[in-house]
Amino acid sequence: MLAQMAKTILPAPTYRRLRAWHNRPAGVRWGSLRRLNPVSRVFGYDRGTPIDRYYIDQFLNEHRQDIRGRVLEIAEPIYTRRFGDDRVTQADVLHTQPGDPQATLVGDLTTGQGIPRDAFDCIILTQTLGFIFDVPQALRGVAQALKPGGVALATCAGISQISRYDMDRWGDFWRFTSRAAERLFTQAFAPGLPGQVQVQTYGNVLAATAFLQGLACHELTPTELNTRDRDYELLLGIRAVRATGDVHD
Q1: Which of 3, 10, 88, 181 is at 20 to 30 A from 69, Cα to Cα?
Q2: Would 249 be classed as within a structural domain?
Q3: 22 in any annotated domain
Q4: One digit per residue, pLDDT tens: the chain, 249 residues?
Q5: Contact assessment for residue 74 and residue 154, using Cβ atoms and an 8 Å cutoff
């Protein structure tokens, strides 16, 4: 009734401005996030467990039964030990450069040099592909290193700050979407064979905002972390099975 009275009494331009003001979106309370520098520049490691690591653990735990037999992991065998239980018969660690005492293999996924073919039951590839420029060739290398029927468990950043450490040394090249990951892995692992590649997404706008600011996972509630919004893919988890046929060079 009040709106109708105002429309009758007020001049039309004044009424339109008043109505627009009344219907305006509620203001956002930025609080301590209205800042030009993030809360943490090291992904939240200085505050606790980073949000993307929460999702990586979730993904690998969901697929822990795939971590079995001979397993290859990049840089260090953290996830092989955490999720492999008693199913792992041999744990290998890949480095691109010699000198690391944890490395059992020194090689390059993009060339295949130093990496045996048809050798692994599982390859764990967490947060690695963003730092490799030739991703399609690296994925072909992963597929060739797996035994037929072997499984790659990979995670990729969808929304993330730059990793300055990596950028200044060898490069931080890519962020991925679920559509891109599905095409890349399917081309490398099982072209023309649907169902060999499964992509899961994790995150939402709040989790993404918190991650970019460098908050740790304990600073969000379980509901805030576990709600998934397909338009805010903070992290991708990919399970890819090598087809039983030949993998082309």
Answers
A1: 181
A2: no
A3: no
A4: 555 665 677 677 776 776 766 666 667 677 888 899 999 999 999 999 999 999 999 999 999 999 999 999 999 999 999 999 999 999 999 999 888 889 999 999 999 999 999 999 999 999 999 999 999 999 999 999 999 999 999 999 999 999 999 999 999 999 999 999 999 999 999 887 767 999 999 999 999 999 999 999 999 999 999 999 999 999 999 999 998 866 555
A5: no
Amino acid (1-letter code) at residue 166: D
In a domain, 30, yes or no: no
Give the predicted TM-score (pTM) of the model. Answer: 0.88
Total domains in the chain come to 1
Q: Which CATH number is 157's domain given?
A: 3.40.50.150
Strand ranges inside 129-248, DSSP E: 146-157, 197-202, 235-241
Domain housing 158: 38-241
